[in-house]
Design brief:
- Chain A: Its main location: membrane.
- Chain A: GO terms for molecular function: ABC-type sulfate transporter activity.
- Chain A: Keywords: Membrane, Sulfate transport, Transmembrane, Transmembrane helix, Transport.
- Chain A: It is a multi-pass membrane protein.
- Chain A: Part of the ABC transporter complex (TC 3.A.1.6.1) involved in sulfate/thiosulfate import.
- The complex is a heterodimer of chains A (about 270) and B (about 290).
- The two termini of chain A are about 25 Å apart.
- Chain A has 14 helices and no strands.
- Chain A has 2 domains: about 10-40, no CATH class; about 45-270, MetI-like (MetI-like fold).
- The longest helix of chain A has about 35 residues, at about 55-85.
- In chain A, helix 1 crosses helix 14 (about 240-270) and helix 6 runs parallel beside helix 12.
- With about 270 residues, chain A is mostly helical.
- Chain A is globular.
- Chain B folds into 2 domains: about 20-50; about 55-290, Orthogonal Bundle (MetI-like fold).
- Chain B contains 13 helices and no strands.
- In chain B, helix 1 (about 5-50) packs antiparallel against helix 13 (about 250-290) and helix 3 runs parallel beside helix 8.
- Chain B has helices spanning about 5-50, 55-60, 65-95, 105-110, 120-130, 135-140, 150-160, 165-175, 180-185, 190-220, 225-230, 240-250, 250-290.
- Classes of the chains: A mainly alpha (about 270), B mainly alpha (about 290).
- Chains A and B meet through helix 1, helix 3, helix 4, helix 5 and helix 6 of A and helix 1, helix 3, helix 4, helix 5 and helix 7 of B.
Chain lengths: ~270, ~290
């Protein structure tokens, strides 16, 4: 793969300039406006908003549900990626194509479909009712919706990496006497982990911010099943712009710190 | 054949045989995930929509507010996707063809909207253009409506779909390198000729793939649009918002009917995606041979 900078190819100034102007107008300046708006609040005011029990409850719910959903996807996604890359079986192409359904399907549609399935009287939900627990209108339902909308992330980041590992490497390890678990631990895991973490963090970031698919299945009870993005919505409906802004900033900062940590972890692993 | 080779061969075979059971289990569980998690939601949408027959289904879709919502959705997609397409090509061009300082920061900034909640994407525009916003009063003086109107919906849609095209193009363009463009230049092509005749045919399928993903998200965006739309029926309601309104009015059959329209669009998008992806893979295979 050759990559070098070429003075022969024109358009550097034009494309870089356009990219910067467009990105500033559409993304950076509006996001900056939110931080400027937040800066109008004093620390005490800001703290009072974000330390309210209702906000803390939503914060905990949003981040933990997104974390668990990303983790579930880490397992299911690895399994799916492995099966799709390594085996040929009837229906492989259909599954392969349909993995991306959660990305193509509008989140509101996913939301009402999952609610219809997992509500206490729904097709799947009634079994849960028989067993004595509820899926929809509880944190379980929220996690389920997040798992659905973020399903493709881990699969899609792992697939190309898995396809690039030659089978011979595993066979060589087996020939040298490694047990299947050892092959996994010492041969596959190191190669897969960076991509796995990328998929995990993409799913996590999306899960924290997800709104459309969650609000239908969540039940939206304050303190119990209210997610952070919904709380921003609630504040906006009450014309409480300061509240909405403070929560928005809180969300971005916490997400940013967590993603940074994952990134650092990834670098740590990539080092030999 | 020496005995060592034989043992090695047996060991390799044993490891493969041991995998057989695991392989079957994995394939079955992949099928289970597919049926329970992907197929079932899809079927429930269709079955709920058709619960009261085709008549109710079609009357829900051809109802005036639903058609207005469809029109608005198509309009928003029609404006935001081409804008992001041009941006995507420009951004991928400068990132993949040149080396410059701060490039990785630029790439991070381009990807930023993926890690920002759609609700925040809507919120920032309300803070900027809303009645209480930074330029809200000025806009009101000049009678320009952005929030609770089409421009706000388009802006919010653009925000959440900014990275799609660039993300697909950067790896493709990096892999293709700059040799063909250099050759075109040396043979006397000017910048635009080089772009139209060399670069564009090379990145065509990646571009289509990115646009398909971008369209899917733009069409279905809910959170961001919900904040800036104001939910005025027949005026600022997009299709996903219309689904929400119908659902919250306990008009479930109508909600699922409109939802199944979106579902069919999504399936069509998946088909397009599959098709462009197979073309990209062919391109990559060709590039690998050279």
């Amino acid at each position: 793969m050759s990559r070098r900078t070429s003075p022969v190819i024109p358009g550097f100034g034009l494309t870089l300039g356009y990219t910067l102007v467009y990105l500033s107008l559409v993304v950076l300046i509006p996001l900056g406006a939110m931080f400027i708006h937040a800066a109008q609040l004093s620390w005490a005011e800001f703290w009072a908003i974000i330390s309210a029990p209702r906000v803390l409850a939503a914060l905990k719910l949003s981040f933990s549900a997104a974390f668990v959903a990303a983790l579930i996807n880490g397992i299911i996604g690895t399994l799916l990626a492995w099966t799709l890359v390594r085996y040929t079986f009837p229906g492989r192409k259909v599954i392969e194509a349909m993995i991306d359904l959660p990305f193509a399907l509008p989140t509101a549609v996913a939301g009402i479909a999952l609610t219809a399935l997992y509500a206490p009287s729904g097709l799947v939900g009634q079994f849960a009712t028989d067993l004595g627990f509820k899926i929809a209108y509880t944190p379980i339902g929220i996690t389920l919706a997040l798992t659905f909308v973020t399903l493709p992330f881990v699969v899609r980041t792992l697939q190309p990496v898995l396809a690039d590992i030659p089978r011979e490497v595993e066979e060589a390890a087996a020939c040298l006497g490694a047990k299947p678990l050892q092959v996994f631990r010492y041969v596959l895991l190191p190669a897969l982990l960076p991509a796995w973490l990328t998929g995990f963090s993409l799913a996590f970031a999306r899960g924290v911010g997800e709104y459309g698919s969650v609000i239908f299945i969540a039940g939206n009870m304050p303190m119990k099943t209210e997610i952070l993005p919904l709380l921003i919505m609630v504040k906006l409906d009450q014309y409480d712009y300061h509240g909405a802004t403070a929560i928005g900033v809180l969300m971005l900062v916490v997400s940013f710190i967590l993603l940074l940590l994952i990134n650092l972890l990834q670098r740590q692993i990539a080092k030999p | 054949m020496s005995s060592t080779t034989l043992t090695l061969a047996t060991r390799a075979n044993a490891s493969r045989r041991g995998n057989k059971l695991g392989r079957r289990l994995l394939i079955i569980s992949a099928w289970l995930v597919f049926v329970l998690f992907l197929l079932l939601p899809l079927l429930i949408v269709l079955s709920e929509a058709l619960k009261q027959g085709l008549g109710t289904f079609f009357s829900a879709i051809f109802e005036a507010d639903a058609l207005a919502a469809l029109q608005l959705t198509l309009l928003a997609v029609g404006i935001s996707v081409p804008l992001n397409l041009v941006f995507g090509v420009a951004a991928a061009w400068c990132v993949s063809k040149y080396e410059f300082r701060g490039k990785s920061i630029l790439v991070t900034l381009i990807d930023l909207p993926f890690s920002v909640s759609p609700v925040i994407a809507g919120l920032v525009y309300v803070l900027l253009f809303g009645a209480q916003g930074f330029i809200g009063p000025w806009l009101r003086e000049h009678d320009i409506q952005i929030i609770f109107a089409l421009p706000g919906i388009v802006l919010a849609t653009i925000f959440v779909t900014v990275p799609f095209v660039t993300r697909e193009l950067i790896p493709l363009m990096q892999q293709q390198g700059t040799q063909e463009e250099e050759a075109a230049r040396l043979l006397g092509a000017n910048g635009w000729q080089m772009f139209w005749h060399v670069t564009l045919p090379n990145i065509k399928w990646g571009l289509i793939y990115g646009v398909v993903l971008c369209t899917a998200r733009a069409m279905g965006e809910f959170g961001a649009v919900s904040v800036v739309s104001g939910h005025i029926r027949g005026y600022t309601n997009t299709l996903p918002l219309h689904v929400e309104i119908l659902y919250n009015e306990y008009n479930h059959v109508a909600a699922f009917s409109v939802a199944s329209l979106l579902l069919l669009l999504a399936l069509f998008i998946l088909l397009l995606k599959q098709w462009s992806e197979s073309r990209i893979n062919r391109l990559k295979a060709n590039a690998g041979e050279e």
